[in-house]
Amino acid sequence: MDIIPSLNPLTIRTTKNGETIEDIKKGEDHEQPLSPMARLFHEPGSNVYIIGIMGSKTKIRPDVFKENLVHTFLKNRRFSSLQVFDKENGSMKWIPTHVNIDDHVIIAKLDHNMESPDKFVEDYISNLSGSPIENTKPLWDLHILDIKTSEAEGICVFRFHHSLGDGMSLMNLLLSCTQDTKTPMKGSEGVEQRPRRFVIRSVSLDDIKFVKRAMNATLNDVVLGATQAGLYRYLHRRYSETDGNNVDVPHDIRLRATVFFNLRTSTTIEDFTDTSKHGTWGNKIGYSLLPFKIALRKDPLDYIRDAKAIMDRKKASLEPLFTYSFANLVHKFFGIKVAGKLKS
């Protein structure tokens, strides 16, 4: 059974010297030679592809993927250019071209009653590794496997020709597709330098403790749940003001926060002034990235239940310890400025 859908080639009209018709109309020269290493990855025996596999905890929406790819991948020149061989001097050049996103996003046809989805994914990727991408289009594609495996609700397989970039540059590109969603809360570049305004709202600590005991949660769980509820109300009002109607907040908003954890073995409060004796001064803290669920809950206590579930997972993970150790390692080898970028 052929489990790899055929790739529809993209027809590009070019002149004899390799320029696209669109470039000539614009009167621009966009040709750039491939670097020696990029050229090397086209040689026999070194024609290498990078394959990345990503599992999703929710069902995959192809329309969302395509929209993100248009705003990220296609803004990168290499992902919207052909690699054209110049017969005159034996070199290869990047030639910008129009990209049809549907030619690069392949939705596999699947039998959802298959015996072993995990084995199917393995076979699919193995078969994909031996199937080159047509050089009539930019050398990358994305395969969506809408199938539930033992570890994910859906699978995405990214395939890039190694001439597009190395592992670090491609990982940066993939991570750029997962940035937080643009919302009325997201500031522009340099916002951290602008004046801040603080609005104070007093709440009853006794009320928070009452909810804490009733929910078998912590004070932080209750505050976090209340924060998520408040963020939803705020965004709902802002979106309604923008559209002039009583619209709901988009369901696919991705918003996250940085939460710090104390990594000390003891958190008891002591009366001390001799720091050399106790050694408890300083900042021994790690941090985790916390996803915020921005949605309307019929039961307000669901905000706290969600917050408690997330925080329990974070506390049980090694993420805070890893970020603490990694930040120290980066600081040691690359300096404080580079380490500071980790939290930005």
TrEMBL record:
It is a single-pass membrane protein. Signal peptide: none annotated. In the N-terminal section; belongs to the long-chain O-acyltransferase family. GO terms for molecular function: diacylglycerol O-acyltransferase activity; long-chain-alcohol O-fatty-acyltransferase activity. It comes from Lactuca virosa. Pathway: Lipid metabolism; Glycerolipid metabolism; triacylglycerol biosynthesis. Keywords: Acyltransferase, Endoplasmic reticulum, Transferase. It comes from the Eukaryota. InterPro entries: O-acyltransferase_WSD1-like, O-acyltransferase_WSD1_C, O-acyltransferase_WSD1_N. Residues 92-189 form the O-acyltransferase WSD1-like N-terminal domain. This is Diacylglycerol O-acyltransferase. It holds the Pfam family WS_DGAT_C. It catalyses: a long chain fatty alcohol + a fatty acyl-CoA = a long-chain alcohol wax ester + CoA; an acyl-CoA + a 1,2-diacyl-sn-glycerol = a triacyl-sn-glycerol + CoA. It is found in: Cell membrane; Endoplasmic reticulum membrane. GO terms for cellular component: endoplasmic reticulum membrane; plasma membrane. Residues 281-342 form the O-acyltransferase WSD1 C-terminal domain. GO terms for biological process: triglyceride biosynthetic process. Its main location: membrane.
